[in-house]
């Protein structure tokens, strides 16, 4: 009886069902100059997304490393960041980015603001920092909470 229950539970567990593809291609994002864009411009290559918040010290500490990773020439994936700040923080960060204050050390050209909620909902983002990997068609294939350094990001994409 115990074996039957175990097999039944395994069969009925959520992991045993095929997951529906979750596309993030159509979610609107804002650039630093307030232009609306979507992720569809990154179609064709896997896309690593670092989700972060302006009030998160761990997130801010890791941005310089993400900047360096995004500048690497031979990556077989794209790298972007998506921030989730409040309006006051957004203005402060945008100002610091535009004048290049060292304390913020963010030079990533692919830096976006998200409309609150949609990516969080679709990707089940549980906190910040949070890492997402999309396939070449911009379907979510992996999500992981916490800080990842450059080597860990490369491994995250590779696996």
Helix content: 25-40%
Count the beta strands. 7
The main pleated sheet reads as:
7 strands, mixed
Order of strands across the biggest sheet? 2-1-5-4-3-6-7
Low-pLDDT windows of residues: 4-18, 98-109
N- to C-terminal distance: 38 Å
From the alpha carbons, calculate the radius of gyration and give it in angstroms.
Answer: 18 Å
Shape: globular
Mean pLDDT: 75
The oligomerization state is single chain
What structural class do helix, strand and pairing data support? alpha/beta
| Count of alpha/pi helices | 6
Order of helices and strands: HEEEHHEHEHEEH
Proportion of residues in extended strands: 15-25%
SSE layout:
Blueprint: H1 2-12, E1 29-30, E2 36-37, E3 47-52, H2 57-61, H3 63-71, E4 78-83, H4 87-99, E5 111-114, H5 118-123, E6 130-134, E7 140-145, H6 150-158
Parallel strand pairs: 3-4, 4-5
Antiparallel strand pairs: 1-2, 1-5, 3-6, 6-7
Description:
The chain is α/β, with parallel strands linked by helices and 159 residues long. The protein is built from six helices and seven strands; from the N terminus they run αβββααβαβαββα. The chain has helices at 2-12, 57-61, 63-71, 87-99, 118-123, 150-158; strands spanning 29-30, 36-37, 47-52, 78-83, 111-114, 130-134, 140-145. The protein has a seven-stranded mixed sheet with strand order 2-1-5-4-3-6-7. A hairpin with a 5-residue loop joins strand 1 and strand 2 (36-37). The longest helix has 13 residues, at 87-99. The chain is globular and about 30 Å long. Mean pLDDT is 75; it is low at 4-18 and 98-109.
């Amino acid at each position: 009886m115990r074996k039957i229950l175990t097999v039944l539970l395994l069969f009925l567990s959520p992991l045993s069902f095929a997951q529906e593809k979750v596309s993030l291609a159509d979610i609107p994002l804002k650039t630093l100059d307030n232009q609306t864009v979507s992720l569809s411009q990154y179609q064709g290559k896997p896309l690593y997304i670092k989700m972060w918040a302006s009030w998160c010290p761990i997130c801010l500490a890791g941005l310089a490393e993400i900047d360096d990773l995004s500048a690497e020439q031979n990556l077989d994936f794209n790298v972007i960041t998506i921030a989730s700040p409040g309006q006051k923080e957004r203005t402060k960060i945008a100002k610091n980015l535009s004048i290049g204050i060292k304390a913020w050390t963010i030079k990533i050209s692919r830096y976006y603001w998200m409309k609150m909620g949609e990516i969080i909902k679709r990707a089940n983002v549980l906190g910040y920092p949070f890492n997402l990997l999309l396939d070449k068609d911009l379907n979510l294939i992996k999500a992981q909470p916490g800080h990842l350094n450059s080597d860990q990001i490369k491994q995250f994409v590779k696996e």
